[in-house]
Specification:
This protein is 33% helix and 31% strand. The protein is of the alpha+beta class. The protein has one domain (13-117): Alpha-Beta Plaits. The longest helix is centred in the last third of the chain and has 14 residues, at 73-86. The radius of gyration is 18 Å and the shape is elongated.
């Protein structure tokens, strides 16, 4: 029987970006150009801000795309900035982003990479 173990990765961050629909591909491309390896994209429906933004004359669609990317500490700020700019999040009603430090991450890591890291 094979011995199984868990390899924990540390110094990782989760970047979550909630965007207006149809912007995820462009934001994801910006993240990948900086070095992000992959992402999870899901779809959601937003509430709350629509009423407030409508008062300013900005139409806000309730359909959203949510991008989640796990990146290393070294990549975190660069990927965050690239995603923010690509999503035009400095424009009212375009979306929101946040980044949190992850305590531990576990996934398959090839033996060659583990040996090289030691």
């Amino acid at each position: 029987m094979n011995e199984r173990s868990i390899t924990y990765l540390s110094d990782a961050f989760l970047i979550t970006c909630v965007l207006q629909k149809e912007l995820a591909e462009e934001v994801l491309a910006a993240a990948k150009n900086i070095g992000a390896q992959g992402a999870t994209i899901s779809y959601a429906r937003g509430t709350g801000i629509r009423e407030r933004m409508g008062l300013l004359g900005v139409t806000i669609d309730e359909q959203k795309e949510v991008i989640r990317i796990i990146v290393s500490e070294e990549q975190a700020n660069l990927v965050f900035e690239a995603m923010y700019l690509a999503g035009k999040l400095d424009t009212p009603g375009m979306g929101i982003m946040y980044m949190v430090k992850l305590d531990r991450v576990a996934t398959y890591v090839p033996e060659a990479i583990l040996n090289a890291a030691n």
